[in-house]
Amino acid sequence: MTGLQITTESGDGWHRVVPVGEVDLTSADQLRAAIEEIAGSTVVVDLSGVTFMDSSGIAALVAARRQVEADGNGLVLRGAQGVVRRVFQVLSMEDWLTD
Prior knowledge:
Helices cover 36% and strands 31% of the residues. By secondary structure, the protein is α/β, with parallel strands linked by helices. Helix 1 packs parallel to helix 2.
């Protein structure tokens, strides 16, 4: 699968973003916008459906995390697998992942 599809879910005091596909230069802003749009409490990003992520994806997550935290909330990343998990490891950002 190429490209990126994003679904969001919200409940009483929680928000979840579920990207599926590739997070790269062409789709990173879409992910960032989806996260920032529903910020208002802790946002959980389920990365289990992400098959590829480049530096643009990481930059989008860093920017979204800054915005969410500036609003007094948190960003939780879950489900990173394979090459996506490896990107976080190579960048010494594995502590960003919660599983």
